[in-house]
Write a structure and sequence with these properties.
This protein has 522 residues and is mostly helical. It has 17 helices and 4 strands. The strands form 2 sheets. It has a two-stranded antiparallel sheet. It has a two-stranded antiparallel sheet with strand order 2-3. The longest helix is centred in the last third of the chain and has 34 residues, at 335-368. The protein is globular and about 50 Å long.
Amino acid sequence: MRFKSDLSILEIVGYGLGHIFNDICASMWFTYLLLFFQKVLYFKTTDSGALLFAGQIADGVSTTLVGLLADKLANFILCRKYGGRKSWHLLGSVCVLCSFPFIFLSCIGCSTSSREVQMVYYTSFIVVFQFGWACVQISHLALVTQLSERPETRTLLTSIRYLGTVVANLLVYAVTWVMFGTAGDQPEISSADGDKFRNIMIIGVGVGLVTTLLFHILVRERTCRSSDEKKVDLPLSSYFGWLKNPQFYLVGIVYTASRLFVNLSQSYIPLYLQDSIMVESEYVAIIPLIMFLSGFVTSFFINPLHRLLSEGLTWVLGGIIGMGAAIWLYFDIGSFYLQYGIFIVAALYGGANSVLLITSLSFTANLVGNKISSASFVYGLMSLFDKVANGAAILIIQKEIKCLKLQKSVAVTPGTALADFVSTFLSSTSAAVSWTEQASTTAAVNSTLLSTTTDASPCMGCTKFPDLEHPCFKFFRSVIFSVTGGAAVVGTIFSIILFFTYRRPRKEIPRRKISTMSQKSY
């Protein structure tokens, strides 16, 4: 297929590299944060949920502020000399580099301190990380409208950006597979796996640093604007104008639904694999890896689908695929599903993720159009909707978790965080927990499901005779079905509204340009 772009190949590739560091961090953040804090550091479910929620809120506030400041401060010296978008990208990359590594390490100098001290420690790094992540995300998204005014090129850049996301996730999951696959048939993830998460983080940060440097070398930000876009310091009324635009809210709902589908499935599938269908620990890498391989393949068909069906109907198609995957995951726990079906469901989720995310970003780019001076503001608010919705959903889910499964025979020194954690549960519930003294300085926790409520009955006998319909095992299955299926339904409804409400009449477009109509219609 011939496609003439107004950008060079190096610029297109360079742009795709610019978000890989962010994507590597986001992959670990959404996929393994809850798993790491609950299974390795033994944080309570509400505490780990609070950390993720704090990060989402910090990200949401940061994206809004960065969206405003990135447009207002475009005349600063560094922005004029180096480019406004790339300057913010550079600032964000430095913040991410200086904060993210500490999130996936034990609390340095405070590993035996109280949970409150550790919460403050991790929250501080999370806030800095989320601010930097927001700087990179908003500047990179807004750069699409800065590099080209052609809808075809913008869609191509959006697709390349998502391909970078897929590559980053494939890297994380491949490395994770290597780390946990070498452990044999290890059934559970425990505190003994802290070093593995550290190594995954170090490799990810190293690759991200290299790709970020290549982005800044290969991409040259256009500083010349058209006559109607030369003024960067827009009046406040121009921002309020977006808030009066109904299409802005419709696109925001679809974008948020896409992010809920992608992020929540990414966050809870590892816990679903560990606590709902109880597969080996290497599956926390294999299943997400299949999802993103499927997403990678699917991404090549997004542009043709946009031309053939329009963005609106393409999103609907992805939503139907996502709903089908959610229904299968929830209702089928037979032997075929556990041996083979789970891989097909993972592929369906990956394909749906690709369609929904790329199409929602195309919605947003087309909404901005040639109003590039306020692009950062639009992307910032879209991201705020996304972060608040994701954070609130995760906080609610974490509070509803009834059972927590711990690894068998984890050696613990009395007085450590795990001892405090278990004693907290023992003081508030009569759950069947085996807590025996191995020696004068150590204790062991048998593999079991700890009740997080005063009613211990849902957890009795769960591990001896597993019943996948039991409330303890069914919880994460229900979560994934509800949040992903619900997001797909809501997004589908509003995509259809966008398609019929803001679709340009066919007769207004010359015959020779009909093939590009789908780039501008919903």
